[in-house]
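mind reviewing these tokens:
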Amino acid sequence: GPYIRSCHAKDILLQPELTTHLDEIRPGLGGLDYAVFLKELTRFSDAPLMLEHLPNAEEYRLAAEHIRSVAKVSNIPLA
């Protein structure tokens, strides 16, 4: 709504355990539909999308590559 100022690009993997366990993983490896997420994000002007909590530069590169490719296929402009 009107209070959203930024978004964090994350993904999760639900583990098949007796108790609920969610692993935070690189965008594109989990269950989040990034086409829908990015489309909804366009409703907020100037809301930055940030990557965080990844273990190394290669994971950040792959995460950014995934987000850019989804945006391109979905005709969603990125600044």
Q: What stands out?
A: The mean pLDDT is 91.
